[in-house]
Automatic annotation (TrEMBL):
EC number(s) per entry: 7.1.1.-
GO molecular function, one term: NADH dehydrogenase (quinone) (non-electrogenic) activity
Cofactor: [4Fe-4S] cluster; FMN
Presence of keyword Oxidoreductase: yes
Record domain NADH-ubiquinone oxidoreductase 51kDa subunit iron-sulphur binding: where: 346-391
Catalytic reactions on record: a quinone + NADH + 5 H(+)(in) = a quinol + NAD(+) + 4 H(+)(out)
InterPro entries: NADH-UbQ_OxRdtase_51kDa_CS, NADH-UbQ_OxRdtase_suF, Nuo51_FMN-bd, Nuo51_FMN-bd_sf, Nuop51_4Fe4S-bd, Nuop51_4Fe4S-bd_sf
Keywords, sorted A to Z: 4Fe-4S, Flavoprotein, FMN, Iron, Iron-sulfur, Metal-binding, NAD, Oxidoreductase, Quinone, Translocase
Pfam families to which the protein is assigned, alphabetical: Complex1_51K (PF01512), NADH_4Fe-4S (PF10589)
Name the UniProt record assigns to this protein: NADH-quinone oxidoreductase subunit F
Summary of the function given for this chain in its UniProt record: NDH-1 shuttles electrons from NADH, via FMN and iron-sulfur (Fe-S) centers, to quinones in the respiratory chain.
Family, similarity comment: Belongs to the complex I 51 kDa subunit family.
Uppermost EC category: translocase
Length: 451
């Protein structure tokens, strides 16, 4: 897997003017440590933020830039920061980096943490200054052992250089940063489940309100941002709002650049930093190189397993939240997956729903029982043992587990690909329905939910 931001045949070169996230990457894929990072203008933005900007000005700059969360939800970062309390008497606040990258087909944060750990630290340092947080945690997916090693080394380098700890850059501001590895749960990507896990509790989402900005870690004001989101902050502070907005393509309502990728049976699977507004076709054909010889594109997901399937004719959609919404799904993480024509959609969905059912925290009934029910129905259809009405039941589950019907967004994301697969490939599901003569009467057919 290519973890670079080069275009096809290295036609597109990275520069600070066009690739704020990845221009410092080494060609050999090794990590950029402190001396090299500072030689490449690293921590210059932090010095500017500490020396020349009031804390509220940093918040306003990020808000004006249009930066949105890069973890999948796309909430405006500056607005989120603005929710933190203004009361100076609240002197204990926390900044959390959500690095629990468990979304299938997604590996963008891993690249940043493994190869540019100081970029994340600088982003968190500036953010902590803006939010008046005295302690930060990087909540890291447990399987990312290399990222943990590199982040811990980078934290120690920053401490030794006076960039973390007490009286940073002579400002009187203190900020401690810790790397905390999780136990491996998809649900920890939900910010309040992450907070519960960090506190040593079961990783269940919390009821909101109160929101973490008011009551977060150990009951104190807390801001949670994704890795890629925080890594955008230094460039915004260093080069300004107008420049950052100019990076996006015309027509995009999202600003800046985004780490995008393609996996599956494409010729050049990889990860690239691209401006918001590029089309799916550019990403698929110009960067991923199209399908491998002997394979044909059947459908694709634009941003992880929790986004709906799209058809080849949807490749002309622009890659930003509103552009993908126009063709019926979400941008998600921006790392697409190509499904080739040899794949049976029922089998693919059964595999996906098994994952989502296993990763449910079990807190609310629709998710806890509905997802295993969908798996049982899909297994029956996959084996040619589906019964009349099973497809309608699956579609009913898509509705029952949709947005606003469950405690958090886990179940809606889990069933979105299921609904789109039935919409576009219903004959494949119908092929697994047993003939009426062989059907078991509905009342005689047991379905053990949650087994």
């Amino acid at each position: 897997m290519t973890l670079t931001s080069f275009g096809p045949a290295n036609r597109i070169k990275r520069s600070a003017e066009t690739h704020p996230l990845t221009w410092r990457l080494r060609d050999d894929g090794e990590a950029v440590w402190l001396d090299e990072y500072q030689a490449k203008n690293g921590y210059a933005a932090a010095r500017k933020a500490f020396a020349d900007m009031a804390q509220d000005d940093i918040v306003q700059t990020v808000k004006d830039s249009g930066l949105k969360g890069r973890g999948g939800a796309g909430f405006p970062t500056g607005v989120k920061w603005g929710l933190m309390p203004k009361d100076e008497s609240i002197n204990i606040r926390y900044l959390l980096c959500n690095a629990d990258e468990m979304e299938p087909n997604t590996w963008k944060d891993r690249m940043l943490m493994e190869q540019l750990p100081h970029l994340l630290i600088e982003g968190m340092l500036i953010s902590a200054r803006a939010l008046k947080t005295y302690r930060g945690y990087i909540f890291l997916r447990g399987e990312y052992t290399t990222a943990a090693k590199h982040l811990n080394r980078a934290v120690e380098e920053a401490k030794a250089a006076g960039l973390l700890g007490k009286n940073i850059l002579g400002s009187g501001f203190d900020f401690e940063l810790f790397v905390h590895t999780g136990a491996g749960r998809y649900i920890c990507g939900e910010e309040t489940a992450l907070i519960n896990s960090l506190e040593g509790r079961r990783a269940n989402p919390r009821s909101k309100p109160p929101f973490p900005a008011a009551v977060g870690v150990w009951g104190k004001p807390t801001c949670v941002n994704n890795v890629e989101t925080l890594c955008n902050v230094p460039a915004i502070i260093a080069d300004g709002v107008d420049w950052y907005k100019s990076l996006a393509r015309e027509g995009s309502e999202d600003m800046g650049t985004k780490l995008m990728g393609f996996s599956g049976k494409v010729k050049n699977p990889g990860l690239w930093e691209l401006p918001f507004g590029v089309t799916g076709r550019e990403l698929f054909e110009d960067y991923a190189g199209g399908m491998r010889d002997g394979y044909k594109l059947k459908c694709w997901q634009p941003g992880g397993a929790g986004t709906g399937f799209l058809l080849p004719e949807h490749l002309d959609a622009q890659m930003y939240a509103g552009g993908i919404a126009k063709v019926g799904t979400r941008m998600g993480t921006g790392l697409a997956m190509a499904v080739d024509d040899s794949v049976n959609m029922v089998s693919l969905l059964r595999n996906m729903e098994q994952f989502f059912a296993r990763e449910s925290c079990g807190f609310c009934t629709p998710c806890r029982d509905g997802l295993p029910w969908s798996v049982k129905l899909l297994m029956a259809i996959e084996n040619g043992e589906g019964q009349p009405g099973d497809i309608e039941t699956l579609l009913g589950l898509v509705g029952f587990l949709g947005p606003g019907k469950t405690f958090c967004a886990h179940a809606p994301g889990a069933v979105e690909p299921l609904g789109s697969a039935i919409k576009y490939f219903r004959p494949e599901f119908e092929a697994g329905i047993a003939p009426v003569s062989a059907a078991v009467p509905p009342l005689a057919r047991p379905i053990v939910v949650g087994a």
